[in-house]
Every structure is written in structure tokens, then in C-alpha cells.
From TrEMBL:
The lineage of its organism: Bacteria, Bacillati, Actinomycetota, Actinomycetes, Kitasatosporales. GO terms for biological process: proteolysis. InterPro entries: 6-blade_b-propeller_TolB-like (IPR011042), AB_hydrolase_fold (IPR029058), Peptidase_S9_cat (IPR001375), WD40 (IPR011659), Xaa-Pro_dipeptidyl-ppase/CocE (IPR050585). Residues 447-655 form the Peptidase S9 prolyl oligopeptidase catalytic domain. It comes from Streptomyces montanus. It comes from the Bacteria. This is S9 family peptidase. GO terms for molecular function: serine-type peptidase activity.
Length: 668
């Protein structure tokens, strides 16, 4: 086993193993690089800084291989458009050095910055909002020949979360819109509620973007819009080129030869197509796997054209690989390497491709592929093992059988420690993790928060319940009007199957989830007796209130498909809401919430707890609310407290004795 770990394996009860993966270590490695791009020959991307208040900085890799941050604190490169944001920067290499345009999180203004210029400071391109946070920008594209940045404008017109409009806009680079909203040219007249940033054809004569409207989410149905670009930079009449209410276009872009490429799920799988002006679109690689995904952030990229006509693609079924597609033959050659998951972030320059990749043994890192040679290497945010990898979990991809014989995909992380085992007849406790979304999935990658538990002798089961992505539209649609039913059933089926086969202790099962996963966790505690306790992070707990104005615009009508129209099925909203059935919750729980959360606001938690107290329920629980945190925790000190509190809950309920963990006080 090596000198570092010693040769003696000690026997200790599950949940009591000492581990070098403490909460501060897991918190320091939370988050990952995003939004890659080329600036000249340089690769750039954004990176999290958990110890700097959770800000995201912009990082450049110079041609000589040196890596440096572009923007010091407190600059935070992150957009709030549709609250989940999206591509927050664009760059170009000028004769004088790089020019970057970026969105700053604090004021949501668009800034221009030339880091190589003397005494350079970011200069604002857009005005301060008159309504709080009322002007936001995302998915910028530089058009230096016009002296403009083309992007998405989100403008709040009132105080309500749905008093908002969006348009494709052009922002002047000369700063003339810094104090003058009227200097921003709107390129579309706002017929659609949601739009993505425009992509302009190589000859500059056409622009393409995606658009959709309530009550659809972008994975339900979108339209690929096409318009001519006039010499003066205005757009002609926009017309749909593909898509519709029941067809999801996830991305569109132009090939170097001027053909329009896009990803559609018209066959039940997100596949790549070439648009034809005179006939039907041509499928480029018809497969029962995904070449796209759910558009949670504006500007996600699953494909990127290369200069020679080939196309870099992120694709797969239940997992993703980076490949190079020959559109003439339909052949895909995948990148060799240790990575098992690629994010929806790609950029190309000539034959160079950069993406973001991870595996069960490495966190997300920036990877460059030479499409000519097929060689790939890590070029940034390189994974550096903070502890001996022998402490990492050894996950298993498994498929379980749920109600009505349906398949349920899951990742199982058994307890694992190089120096400790449990007594031979012991069965470990397990925590079922329900991912957020719910139209999303849990990737099979190294997560030190999971390792925090597995290295102490607590197993984790990540369930990609019905409704998750990565397995086609039919699997995704299992959750239509069934949220709070199928997700709950699937998580319970996996938990009970693990118990039945002797993998998990039936009496020591827990459930944990954040956001939509927090809903699943709470609904599970309110409707099943499978779990001994649960951890609920920034959840939805009251469907009717959330669907009637307690959330943001992007998801304000999400429940139309997940549950059904409120006006038609009000009883369904009441029957499935944990708040309405707080009296059914008997298992201890930990409730965690950010006070700045506008997606799942604190009122959801407060109403749930008030209902419990009003009914005289005496269930052991703890509620921790964090100032300065929104939807998804970003600060290192927050994440430390979250992990230690969660472990303490399990220790108290399961009878564990993890060393060095502060005791969470459970109130009744």
C-alpha cells in the first residue's frame, strides 16, 4: 500500500474512518473552469475562487505556456441573465494586445478591458441600471469591423421577477452607451421571450440565434431563427429555419463554408444537422446518443466547427466524450485520454480545440486537442491531487429496475479507504443524492464532497432518475406532470435495491439534494418511509407559491410541464408539496438556504418550518441560512459548514463516530 499509508489495514466501524479529506479541502476544490475561448493564439477561460467570496476570474494561457489571471479581485466575471447566466466574456487579439469584453457580476454591466495597455482599467460599455439589476448582458460576440459587441440584452421593466424582456442587441465599443441606454441598438423587436446570442455567418450577411417562449423550457421546444444582416448592421425579417414547440434546438453555429449547423432532438435524441435552403436538413451523424443537452446557460456549446470542415463534438449516452466528426461520412473519432466527461464548453482555432474535461480520478480541467494529430493534453486548471488518490471513491455505473420495470441509471460510490475496513458482517450507511434541474444529470466525475463521505465509510448513490438528461427525450419526458412522483420513486427504488442486495444498511439510508434535488429530498421525506434522515439544500417546497410568482422568469412556468397547469390541477400542486404535508415528515432533517436566493427564495423554507411548528411537529431538525449566498453555495466558509453539519446529522441519526466534526444542534 506504500510507505505513506502504511501496511496495516485497521478495522473500524463505517462512518468512523479518519480521512485527510476534510471539509475545507473539499470546499477549496469546489467549482470548476468554464467558458473557454481563444484570444488570438491564447486559450482563456473562467475559474472559481471559493476563498475570494466565490468570485469567478478570467484566466489566460500565454503562447509560452504561462498561466495568469486577467482580472484581480473584486472583479467577478459572471452574468445573471435568466439567473443562471451564460457565456460572460469575449476576446480578440489586437495589434496592441488582447481586448476582452466581460460582464461584471456586482453591477451586471458590460466592460471592455485591454490588460496590456498602460494603466489599463476596465471601462464600462453599458449604463448603470435604473431598476435594481435591471440591465443585464450575456453571450457577447465581438464585431470589431462594426465597433460593436453583439449579445443578449435582458431588461427588467418593473419590480416583479417576470417584468422582463429580452432582445438581441449591439453595444458600441467606444463607450457611448456608458450613460446612454439609447446608444444600444436592439437588433430584434422582442417577439420572443427568450433568445440566445446571435451567430453571424462567415460572409457577415446572415445571423442565426435560438428563441423560445413560455410555457416551454428550451429542452421542450425552441426555434432556430435566421435573419439577413444589412450593410448598416440592422437585421432583416427574422424567420424560423428549424424547430418548434415540440422540437428542441440546443445550439446553432456556422461552418467555415457558410452552411448552418444545429443540434435538434427531432428524432428523440439531440443530433447534429446541416440546414438546407432548398430542402430538408441533413443529419450528420444519426445516432441514439446526445450531441447536445439542456440549455440552462446562454451560450453553451456542444459542437464547434473546425477550419477544414470537420466538427468538434461533445457527445455520448449517459456520459460524454470529445470527438471529431466528419460530416461527409458521419464518422466520429473520439479523443484518447483518461477523461470520461466533457462539459458543454468548446472553442476552436484552426485545428485546435479546447474543452473542459474530468474523470472519476480527476476534477474538471482545461484540455486542448489537436484535431490533426488526435493528441490531447491538459493546458489549464490542471487537476492536482490534494491527497493520495487512494482515498478517492471507486464508482460504479449501474442500471436498476424501478416501478413498471423502467430502467433507472445511477452512480454508486461505495465506502472506500486505503487504510481502514469495517467489520466483516457490517453493512454501510448510504446517502442517495438527487441532482438539481430536474432536467439535468449527475456526471461521473471526481467530487471531493462525495469523497468526504466515502472516505469516512458512508456510501453515496447518485441517481439519474427519470427526467434526467443524457438518455434521450423519452427518458427526459418521464417526468412530464410526474415531478414529485417518478423522481421520488426512482430514488427510493435505488436505495431499496442497494439495501436488498446487502450493499446498504436498510435502517441507515438518507437522501440529499439541492434545488430541484432539494424538492425530491423533501418530497421523499414527506411521502415515503425509506430514509432515516435527509439534507435539503435551497429547495422548492411549496409548488403553488413557487409557480405563482415566487421564482424568476426563466423557470416561472416550468411547472406547466413538470406538474401540469395550476389552474387545471390545483389539487396536484397541493398533494405533492412538502409544505402542505409537513405533518408527514417524521425523519430528522437539515435545511440549508442562501438568503440572496431568487430562484428558490428563503420564503419556501420559512413557510415549511412555520407549518411544522404550527402543527406542533417535534421532528429533530436544523435550519441554517447563509447571508451573501444565492442559489448554489460558492463561498468556502459556507461549504465547510454545510459539509460538517451534514456529516454531524448522519452521525447522530446513524450512530456514527467521525472524529473531529462539530456537533450540529438539532432542534425540536
Amino acid at each position: 500500500m506504500g510507505d505513506e499509508l502504511g501496511d496495516i489495514v485497521q478495522t473500524l466501524a463505517y462512518g468512523s474512518w479518519p480521512s485527510p479529506i476534510d471539509a475545507s479541502l473539499a470546499a477549496a476544490h469546489d467549482g470548476h473552469p468554464e467558458y473557454v475561448g481563444f484570444v488570438g493564439d491564447e486559450a482563456w477561460w473562467t475559474e472559481p475562487r471559493p476563498t475570494e467570496g466565490g468570485r469567478r476570474t478570467l484566466v489566460r494561457r500565454r503562447v509560452d505556456g504561462t498561466e495568469e489571471p486577467v482580472l484581480p479581485a473584486p472583479w467577478n466575471v459572471r452574468s445573471r441573465v435568466i439567473e443562471y447566466g451564460g457565456q460572460p466574456w469575449a476576446g480578440a487579439m489586437l495589434d496592441t494586445g488582447p481586448l476582452v469584453v466581460f460582464v461584471n457580476f456586482a453591477d451586471q454591466r458590460l466592460y471592455a478591458y485591454e490588460p496590456g495597455a498602460p494603466d489599463a482599467e476596465p471601462r464600462p460599455l453599458t449604463p448603470v441600471s435604473l431598476v435594481g439589476g435591471g440591465l443585464r448582458w450575456v453571450d457577447p460576440q465581438l464585431h470589431l469591423e462594426r465597433g460593436e459587441v453583439w449579445c443578449v440584452l435582458e431588461e427588467f421593466t418593473g419590480d416583479g421577477p417576470t417584468d422582463v424582456r429580452r432582445a438581441v442587441a449591439a453595444v458600441p465599443l467606444d463607450g457611448s452607451a456608458e450613460q446612454n441606454r439609447d446608444a444600444v441598438r436592439e437588433l430584434t423587436d422582442g417577439p420572443h421571450r427568450f433568445v440566445t446570442g446571435p451567430r453571424v455567418s462567415p460572409d457577415g450577411r446572415r445571423a442565426a440565434w435560438l428563441a423560445w417562449d413560455h410555457p416551454r423550457m428550451p429542452w421542450d421546444g425552441t426555434e432556430l431563427m435566421l435573419a439577413d444582416v444589412a450593410p448598416d448592421g440592422t437585421l432583416g425579417h427574422a424567420r424560423p429555419a428549424a424547430g418548434g414547440p415540440d422540437e428542441s434546438i440546443a445550439q446553432a453555429d456556422w461552418a467555415p463554408d457558410g452552411s448552418l449547423l444545429y443540434v435538434s432532438d427531432r428524432t428523440g435524441w439531440w443530433n447534429l444537422y446541416r440546414a438546407s435552403g432548398s430542402g430538408p436538413s441533413v443529419p450528420l451523424c444519426a445516432r441514439e446518443e446526445e450531441f447536445g443537452g439542456p440549455l440552462w446557460k446562454i451560450g453553451q456549446r456542444w459542437f464547434a466547427p473546425l477550419e477544414d470542415g470537420l466538427i468538434a463534438v461533445v457527445h455520448g449516452r449517459g456520459a460524454t466524450a470529445l470527438g471529431v466528426l466528419d460530416p461527409e461520412t458521419g464518422e466520429v473519432i473520439d479523443t484518447a485520454g483518461p477523461w470520461t466527461e466533457f462539459a458543454s464548453a468548446l472553442a476552436t482555432d484552426g485545428s485546435r480545440v479546447i474543452g473542459i474535461a474530468a474523470s472519476p480520478r480527476s476534477a474538471y480541467e482545461v484540455v486542448e486537442l489537436d484535431a490533426h494529430t488526435g493528441r490531447a493534453r491538459v493546458i489549464g486548471a490542471a487537476h492536482d491531487d490534494p491527497v493520495d488518490p487512494a482515498y478517492y471513491p471507486e464508482p460504479q455505473m449501474r442500471t436498476f429496475t424501478g416501478p413498471a420495470g423502467r430502467e433507472i441509471h445511477a452512480h454508486i460510490y461505495p465506502p472506500h479507504h486505503p487504510g481502514h475496513v469495517a467489520p466483516g458482517d457490517a453493512v454501510p450507511p448510504y446517502v442517495v443524492w438527487a441532482h438539481g434541474g430536474p432536467t439535468s444529470r449527475a456526471p461521473l466525475v471526481l467530487d471531493l464532497q462525495i469523497a468526504y463521505f466515502t472516505s469516512r465509510g458512508i456510501g453515496v448513490a447518485e441517481v439519474n432518475y427519470g427526467g434526467s438528461t443524457g438518455h434521450g427525450r423519452a427518458y427526459r419526458n418521464r417526468l412530464r406532470e410526474q415531478w414529485g412522483v417518478v423522481d421520488v420513486e426512482d430514488c427510493a427504488a435505488v436505495a431499496l435495491a442497494l439495501a436488498d442486495e446487502g450493499t446498504a444498511d436498510r435502517d441507515r439510508l438518507a437522501i440529499r439534494g439541492g434545488s430541484a434535488g432539494g424538492w425530491t429530498a423533501a418530497a421523499s421525506l414527506a411521502s415515503t418511509d425509506v430514509y432515516a434522515c435527509g439534507t435539503i439544500l435551497y429547495p422548492i417546497l411549496d409548488l403553488a407559491a413557487w409557480g405563482e410568482g415566487e421564482t424568476h422568469d426563466f423557470e416561472s412556468q416550468y411547472l406547466e410541464t413538470l406538474v401540469g397547469p395550476l389552474a387545471e390541477v390545483p389539487g396536484r400542486y397541493a398533494e405533492r408539496s412538502p409544505t402542505e404535508h409537513a405533518d408527514r415528515v417524521t425523519a430528522p432533517f437539515l435545511l440549508l438556504q442562501g438568503l440572496d436566493d431568487v430562484i428558490c427564495p428563503p420564503a419556501q423554507c420559512e413557510r415549511f418550518l412555520a407549518r411544522m411548528e404550527g402543527q406542533g411537529r417535534r421532528v429533530p431538525h436544523a435550519y441554517i441560512a447563509f447571508e451573501g449566498e444565492g442559489h448554489g453555495f460558492r463561498r468556502a466558509d459556507t461549504m465547510v459548514r454545510v459539509l460538517e453539519s451534514e456529516l454531524s446529522l448522519y452521525a447522530q441519526v446513524f450512530g456514527l463516530n467521525p472524529p473531529g466534526i462539530p456537533t450540529l444542534e438539532l432542534a425540536k
